Each structure stands twice: as structure tokens, then as C-alpha cells.
Amino acid sequence: MGLVTALAFAEHGHKVTCVDILPERVAQVSEGSAPFYEPGLEETLVRHIGEGKVDATTDTADAVRGTEVTFLCVGTPSSPDGTYDLGQLLSAAEDVG
To answer: In total, how many domains does the chain have?
Structure first.
């Protein structure tokens, strides 16, 4: 979801919307619970949710509508031959439109 990146932008006053294809992860983030450990992450997440700077959704099209900038933060795992698998990136780009 690029949560660390999103929170960095929120720290600088920007309103950010995180998107994930997993509804349970969106619910977790929306409740202020970080899906992984990073020092200070959960406290920062809770604060910015409370300030209305961070929200989360599964609806990519709605999330990017009217934005000035969109970041696609997805996995790019290595293929057996050492090249990158861009499937997740291409799928996210299609969702954006």
C-alpha cells in the first residue's frame, strides 16, 4: 500500500488515500492498525487518521479521481530469470485508467 510513503506525505500536510485490493487490509489501516511493524508507524497512522489526512479504500478509480499526483506502490518480485515481474504494476496502472 505504500503506507510509509503515504504517512511521509501526511506528515508534510498532504491528504492521502491508500488503496489495497484486500478489504481486510484496508479495514486494518482504516482502524489505525499497521499491517507490518515499522518504528513509530502505528502512532503516526492513528494521528493522521484522526486529523483526517489519511484514509484507505479498495476503490482505485475513486481514490485517484481529482488527485494532482498518484503514486503506485506495488510489489515487483523477481522472476526466476532475474527480471522483474511487472504484473502488479501493470494491473494497478490499468485500475487507474
So the answer is: 1
